What does this fold into?
Amino acid sequence: MRAAVQHETGQDKLDVLDDVEAVGFGPGRVRIRVRATGLCHSDLSAMSGVLPQPAPFVPGHEGAGEVTEVGEGVTHLKPGDRVVVCWLPACGACPACKRGQTELCLAGFMNAGTPNFRRSGQDVFGFAGTGTFAEEVVVDAGCAVPIPDDVPFDIAALIGCGVTTGLGAALNTADVEAGSSVAVIGCGGVGISAIQGARLKGAAEIVAVDPVASRREAALRFGATRAVAPDALADAKQSVTAGEGFDYVFEVVGRSATARTAYENTRRGGTLVVVGAGAMDDFLQLNMFELFFDEKRILPSMYGGGDVLRSYERTIALWRAGRIDLEGLITHRVPLSGINEALDQMRTGTALRTCIEI
It folds into this structure.
């Protein structure tokens, strides 16, 4: 079968090969024919080494498709079922799951250490335990979440990561208060989803911050009340908040520099929500006096900060009701053979989300 493979960490191009085999099928596992997958910035971070991932590997973790085979003991799925791939399944038994913090379950991360593919006798891993830049993937049954028949594969793929992450940051983690002021730094697919979440919660002012003009224009279509380049954020802060700072600031880039900017633009007593996934050696510096004196809440948001399955269901309900726009997030479509074109679109910021149709 075909799959896009990264041979070594740091390479900026993927090889689309036709001799890759999906492996690991057995009890408790399912085989999925991938139909659509989104390109998330986390895939680029894994390729560059910002996020740890053994190589060689198949990137991709935001996918949807059809179940073709179920292993022994799998009772909630059958061949032909339409599913979204969940890269962070909850085991239901660990301390985090028992506390109701299923987004902190480590079962999904354990999957990342098990090869999903094989090529020429060599193990090939799947990013985040999945690897959806492939025609087929074998995953734990918990990673395959059934979706209704009216949800297209491309929409379902977005729900698998970016939309759930961004919406959840606003709805779950921040629980944005109606009438509040919000700034979102980084307006790709996840940032735009955070903007939609803030709009749903009734934020009065939503300032989108991004260096790419096309993304700023898109943010206005999705609910931002104004959109500025990073060097104009200070003026927006003065105009919207009289210089006090925003009630909520979402950092959706994953860098200490932008996190520091987000902190400085959050009002005293306000909330900074860290959504971007960054590097382990990139440290955010805060002094002990400002932490005490400013009383700003710093809330990291992992995968939307809530129950993943419930978040999927909520997102589908909001989409059906026309309360959120998911189709508009897909600005480009390419076949698997065009994956490197999609990578360039992500790097340059010309795409909110590129759908890879497989």
Summary: The chain has a mean pLDDT of 95. The longest strand covers residues 29-38.
